[in-house]
Specification:
The chain has 3 domains: 239 residues, no CATH class; 157 residues, no CATH class; 230 residues, no CATH class. It is built from 14 helices and 20 strands.
Length: 737
């Protein structure tokens, strides 16, 4: 009855809303993924600025102007730069656009042990990010603005301030708008994809998203979803997420940025009400439970109670004096029920007759009819008749219409975001490797080793860095031993796979080391950076995105968010076909695509997207594939199927547990008592019957033990009387006389 009530409660709660919860959850995750990409871009830029400043070889002759130019000239993203004296806060040099330094207190920046986080400012109506880095000067550094020198002056620091625009914001998914909001809800950047229009979005969403973000607290990666205005048959669905670190204090925690994504989706016109089905299923289960209860009452409980009374009456007759005993034993023992109770009843009536002296021990047939164990098995089969349709037949999901189209589109958009995140990581690896290769020419071997060691320490994505000569031999290496190296030295630069088989995919970036004028020609010397696949795997998982794979041009797995074997095929042929369908024409990069697949593991929403159409990864032909089980999505049809299956499993499990308990507590003790009763009726007076249960069955056992003691005492008395009777004398034969 409890399971029936839970079935009603669970299934009546499944209803089809105008906007399914799965659509709201998908928009929330898209906003979170966009915020994650934005946070990664800001963190990477801040680390690059600090790393460039710390690697700059300042000398006693370095001037602020030369230092500032050396630190910023190679960076195209820099809008303006400034160099300040950290002790006095005095401006030493500037470059590019004017840097808004209002509010920058160089003397009171973060302690030396901590990095200075970026700062969001507005200059000329455009938002900018100020990145900070310390430039350490060697001891006895001369100040060119002073007329005197102080010997043994301790090391001093300059503060580098770089102003850059916000990282490029990208909106994924047709009809979607993405915005970056500041702490006050003002839009700092907007991106539109397809036919979406920023002016058409709900004007109240930015304020609502900012309030929700403030309510979640600062410095967290909180996210959520909102339902905006409704126009005709379309609803505005929005998602928001804070741009903050997930693993503790980060560079973006103090910026107060919030990402807001929104799109208009068609309202769901189909209705889904499972109340009537829930009542029918619960009523059927209640009818089954009632039928089983009545069957057990009339076939087990009532016959057992009658047997309990009869056994007590016979036991009283066996232990009382003859006049009273005769009255108790004169009535036959009625045989009720079947199986074990009938066997005990027949044995008890035989014992009654033996007490009266009407008969002796009686043997019972070895072959008997069905017992109460068969009744328990029949109860399990009856429960299965209700549970099996609930688990395997009823409320099955229609793979064509179950998953709403916006959910499929959201999976594709999230796959494109994941593709951009992987592409950003690989491009950054190549950029860092190119910068390291540019600093190698003209240096000694020891200096080159120091450069590579510093690059390896700064860039955790590399396993090892090594130089190859024209013949493919390693001339210099730092870090771990390369898993495999290229036999033929490539030209140019980019990302490549070094092997096509083995236990671990070897992915590496490479860049040419240019020759130095006036020295031996160094063309063909290439710097390789072997990328750690574990680092690549670590950026693939995202909440509610499902399984993620990175495949090569032959649809073989190179990296995955779940356990995998290198260069193996995708888990099912449907994913392979999906990857191939991204190709518009032979040799083209292709476009992202998504669809619903039905496999042996169930229904899933899958998507695939090419990794890159340009840049160092464009020639790889790699793809990113995702598969999210529909069971993890809050879709009414899927929820109804899950809860129907759960009700069937729960009802069957509880019923089997109850019948199993009945077998342990009632059926098995009855079988034991039936065997002992038949043996007692067959003449076994030595086996003591010990009551195990403190219930009616235990009382029947105690009554049989009293009967056994009475019969054993009567047998002993009979033997004693026979032994004490005097023998008759033998008469002599007449012939003997």
């Amino acid at each position: 009855m409890v399971v029936a009530a839970l079935t009603v409660i669970g299934l009546t709660g499944v209803r089809a809303a105008p906007v399914p919860q799965a659509v709201l959850n998908g928009e929330q995750q898209i906003a979170a993924d966009t915020a994650h990409s934005l946070r990664t871009a800001i963190d990477t830029e801040a680390s690059t600025v600090r790393r460039t400043a710390s690697a700059y070889p300042a000398t006693s002759t370095s001037t602020p102007v030369v230092t500032l130019k050396a630190l910023t000239s190679a960076r195209k993203a820099v809008l303006g730069s400034a160099l300040l004296d950290r002790r006095s806060g005095r401006l030493l040099a500037t470059g590019g656009r004017t840097v808004p330094l209002a509010g920058v207190d160089a003397a009171r920046t973060a302690p030396t042990s901590r990095a200075v986080p970026p700062r969001l400012v507005t200059s000329g109506g455009a938002p900018q990010l100020l990145y900070y880095a310390r430039v350490t000067l060697p001891a006895q550094q001369e100040d060119p603005n002073q007329d005197y020198q102080t010997p043994n002056r301790p090391a001093r620091q300059w503060l580098l301030v770089v102003s850059e625009a916000l990282p490029t914001l990208t909106a994924y998914g047709d009809g979607r708008t993405a915005e970056v909001l500041d702490a006050g809800g003002t839009a700092l950047a907007t991106a539109v994809h397809g036919k979406a229009s920023p002016g058409g979005a709900d004007s109240g969403l930015p304020a609502a998203a900012t309030r929700a973000a403030h309510g979640a607290g600062t410095g967290t990666d909180a996210s959520g979803s909102l339902l905006g205005a409704t126009t005709a048959d379309r609803h505005t669905v929005a998602g928001w997420a804070q741009v903050a670190s997930t693993t503790g204090p980060g560079d973006t925690d103090h910026l107060g940025l919030v990402v807001l994504t929104s799109r208009a989706v068609a309202a769901t016109t189909t209705t889904a009400d499972y109340s009537r089905f829930a009542l029918k299923a619960a009523g059927a289960l209640a009818a089954v439970a009632l039928a089983l209860a009545l069957a057990l009452f009339f076939s087990v409980q009532r016959p057992l109670l009658r047997l309990y009374l009869s056994a007590g009456r016979v036991a009283r007759g066996a232990t009382q004096d003859w006049p009273t005993a005769s009255a108790e034993l004169s009535r036959p023992v009625p045989v009720h029920g079947f199986g074990e109770l009938a066997r005990i009843g027949r044995a008890l009536d035989s014992l009654r007759r033996q007490l009266l002296g009407e008969s002796g021990p009686e043997d019972f047939p070895a072959r008997r009819g069905p017992g109460y164990r068969a009744l328990a098995v029949l109860g399990v089969l009856v429960l299965a008749c209700w549970a099996v349709p609930m688990v395997f037949l009823l409320n099955r999901v229609d793979s064509v219409t179950a998953v709403p189209a916006p959910v499929i589109a959201d999976q594709q958009a999230r796959t494109e975001i994941a593709t951009g995140r992987i592409r950003q990581s690989l491009n950054q690896s190549y950029t860092d490797l190119t910068a390291a290769a540019a600093s190698l020419p003209g240096r000694t071997r020891a200096a080159q080793t120091a450069v590579l060691r510093r690059a390896l320490a700064d860039h955790k994505q590399y396993r090892s860095l090594y130089l190859l000569d024209r013949s493919g031999g390693i001339t210099l290496r730092v870090g771990g031993t390369p898993l495999r190296t290229r036999v033929h030295v490539p030209d140019g630069g980019g990302i490549t796979t070094v092997n096509t088989s083995g236990r671990i995919p070897v992915i590496a970036g490479y860049a040419q080391v240019r020759a130095v004028k006036g020295r031996a020609k160094a063309a063909g010397v290439v710097l390789f950076g072997e990328i750690d696949v574990k680092r690549l795997n670590s950026i693939l998982p995202r909440p509610k995105l499902g399984s993620v794979w990175v495949t090569d041009a032959k649809e073989r797995v190179l990296a995955a968010s779940v356990g995998y074997q290198a260069f193996q095929s995708l888990p099912n042929s449907g994913l392979t076909r999906l990857v191939r369908s991204t190709q518009n024409a032979p040799g083209t990069a292709g476009t992202a695509t998504s669809e619903v697949h039905v496999s042996s593991s169930g229904l899933s929403v899958d998507a695939a997207a090419p990794l890159a159409q340009s840049g160092p990864t464009a020639r790889l032909g790699w793809h990113v594939v995702t598969a999210e089980p529909a069971a993890a999505l809050q879709i009414p049809a899927v929820q109804a199927e899950q809860r129907t299956m759960l009700a069937g499993i729960l009802g069957f499990s509880v019923g089997v547990a109850c019948l199993g308990w009945l077998h342990v507590v009632v059926v098995r003790p009855l079988r034991a008592v039936a065997v002992l009763g038949e043996r007692l009726a067959g003449g076994d007076r030595r086996t003591v019957l010990h009551p195990v249960n403190h219930d009616e069955i235990g009382s029947v056992t105690r009554s049989l033990e009293l009967i056994r003691q009475a019969l054993a005492e009567r047998d002993r008395a009979s033997r004693s009387t026979h032994a004490a009777r005097p023998s008759r004398p033998v008469r002599e034969n007449s012939l003997q006389r």
